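Input for the complex:
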Amino acid sequence: MIEVKNLTKLYGNFTAIKDVSFKAERGSILGFLGPNGAGKTTTMRIITGYMPATAGTVLIDGLDIFTQSLEARRKIGYLPETPPLYTDMRVEPYLRFVAKLRGVTRSKMDAALEHALEVCGLVEMRGRICGQLSKGYRQRVGLAQALIHDPQVLVLDEPTIGLDPRQIHEIRGLIKDLSGDRTVVLSTHILPEVSQICDRVVIIADGRVVLEEKLSEIPAGTSLEQVFLDAISKERHATHAEDEETLEEVGAGRA
Amino acid sequence: MKNALTIAGKELAQYFVQPVAYVVMTVFLLLGGFFFFELLSYFQIILQMYSAAQNPQLLAHLNLNDRVIGPLLHNLSIVLVILVPAVTMRTFAEEKRVGTYELLLTAPIRTGEIVAGKFIAASAFLLIMIALAGIFPLILVAFGNPEIGVMVSGYLGLAFLAISFAAIGLFTSSVTQNQIVAAIAGFGALLLLFVISWPAQTGAAGWSAGVLRYLSITDHFSQMVLGIIDTKDIVYFLSLIFVALFLTQRAVESARWR
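Predicted:
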């Protein structure tokens, strides 16, 4: 389970996210939805302990990511925005390296490796150099490294970006299969993705949570797109013109 | 420690996958061979001159350690000033640029283990390279009678010098995500360590001269090249390594509280 409580992150005096709170239950998939530059990646980086929050806490299965960082990090499998591949390493040694770092013991190593290669469809690619893989396969290797140690919590930052339609379909199926008794948080700006695989959705815009709901609670007949646009435009009306500018700044900063 | 060795293993393998390792070793050994050949030729000329002068006292002073191995080690130490930053520049900077830094920092390992792993790998690589340069004194041993103890001490000094440089190179790489910046900053820092005692020769006097001499890596290295292994010098190298690695660890850790 992931509990995010009142997260705020400032970069200098620019507010990337403000007072973000949500909960992801065990055995469910939480879709973290928002336009570009809304603060999705920032939130995920804080959840995984890559960077600290200015204020607020994150609990991973009850462990604080800041004060009990090592224990909490042991539970997480994380796929960052760009798959963290060593471009000059081959797939298999790369995955073995990551598995060792994440504490997979020698006796379980081979099984963990085969499993990860199998579920991500990488068995034939195991001898290839990471830097020479296509974007879709890089994404798969990224996914494989995130789940190689069989983590309780999976944090996936835009897992299906750059994949072709067939691969997107496969990866979505894979994520769904994986959820089981795990906690999965995935960020995306693709709406159908959320309605297809997620149980809950958190919509964030301008660094604020504008909607947190179970998908089943969204009234039948309303498309998620409608909910999304409503939520974002409500936020737009509510916030001041200054915030509009900051949103543009985020966009510029990312580019 | 296990994690540090995991990282060290990966890093060391990467040195040899990328052409960096081979280029650096080739340059180092080629230049070393060139220096060695030149120094030996010069030695031979002096030997002939002294023999012709029929001055047994001068001849008795002439030896391979002072005339060949000493200058060779000093020359190689300057080559290292340029080569070591080239070896260490990518250690952290590249990880930040490519995004694998995120993988390392979110893995359940301590920052100290990351730094230690990278330091072990860079040191191992440099030690292999210096060991290969051991061919030069071996040639002398085969054809002449240099003092072996002095040579061992000198090479030990070169090894200490190289791994101190590596620690400093790691630090400059840890504070930037640009490899060129890391290399140039490292080069500048190492060169400064080389020349920092110059004011002691030109004007500075009293305690300040003593401090500058103590800080100078050349002064400690020269002692070892002369065959003097003093705890004072060993302590100097070890504290230099410790300080540089400590700063590196702080720089990496700072990502967690910034």
